[in-house]
Amino acid sequence: MSMTLMLIAHLSDLHLYTERSETGQAPPDIRYIVEQIVSDLLSLEPRPDLVVISGDLADGGTDDDYQLIRQLLTPLPMPIMAVPGNHDRREAMRRVLGGWLVGLQEGKFLHSRVNINGVTLLGLDSVIVGKPQGALCRERLNWLEGELRKAQPLTFLVMHHPPFMTGNPHWDAYSLIEGRERFRQIIDASPKRILCGHIHQPLHTQWGPHYGAIAGSPAFQYNLVPGSAATPIEHNVSYCYPLHCCQPDGSVLVHLRHIT
Ligand SMILES: [Fe+2]
């Protein structure tokens, strides 16, 4: 493995919209918050090598929503990789962002494959059309299995719906409802780093040999209390995004960048 220091910024759940917020929860000033994130990314020296977005780029997913996303993120000089979330729309996302996102694969799913500086990143489309929950059907897991045969030892998997438990029964019922077991069998041959969204609260887990991380949302965040069965409610807390720093020795540091 030949690797130099590589920085991966993990964003998620931007929930950008132009006319109408599908959730009704994304604040009208979300585009300005995203501009602050872009400013922070541009202020870093060395610059991150890659930005990954683990779904819910849009809050409804019209062509105009994706045009806005593209316009806001265009100042970033580094490649951007993204998977869809349950508030995205595959057709519009591919139509507007298809030639612009890095590593996007052809076909009905919006999977991605990126090899950069000795690291492999695979983006998995876990969307079930019309449902908040996610699925990894046989076709998607077969794709993953084939890709993992060609992957570098340091591999990141990016997907909207967490395949691991979050510690909250409400969210676990709204996460990946199909394919968890086979997904785990497929990836278990070597440790992976799994980056997710959907939960709108930062969370880290050691899941068997794998590291898993959920990034918070700059649009709105939930108060997920560990061990509580209560339905999480929104709360107003500061936002931060993780910066994964892949070291030449194969280890990975995770720094948090706070946006005020
Ligand atoms: Fe979301």
Keywords:
five-stranded mixed sheet, Purple Acid Phosphatase, chain A, domain 2, metal ion binding, GpdQ_catalytic, hydrolase, 260 residues, hydrolase activity, alpha/beta, six-stranded mixed sheet, CNP_phosphodiesterase-III, binds fe (ii) ion
Please, how many domains? Answer: 1
How large is the radius of gyration?
A: 17 Å
Looking at CATH, the homologous superfamily is: Metallo-dependent phosphatases
CATH architecture: 4-Layer Sandwich
Q: What is the string of helix and strand elements?
A: EHEHEHEEEHEHEHEEEEEEE
Question: Numbering strands along the chain, what is their spatial order in the largest sheet?
Answer: 4-5-7-9-11-10
Q: Could you tell me the strand content as a percent range?
A: 25-35%
Q: Helix content range of the residues, please?
A: 10-25%
At CATH level 3, the topology is Purple Acid Phosphatase, chain A, domain 2
Compute the number of helices.
6
The major β-sheet equals: 6 strands, mixed
According to CATH, what is the class? Answer: Alpha Beta
Low-confidence stretches: none
Q: Ends: how far apart?
A: 38 Å
- Derived structural class: alpha/beta
**Average residue-wise pLDDT:** 95
Q: Globular, elongated, flat, extended or rod-shaped: what is the shape?
A: globular
Bound heterogens, unique: fe (ii) ion
Number of strands: 15
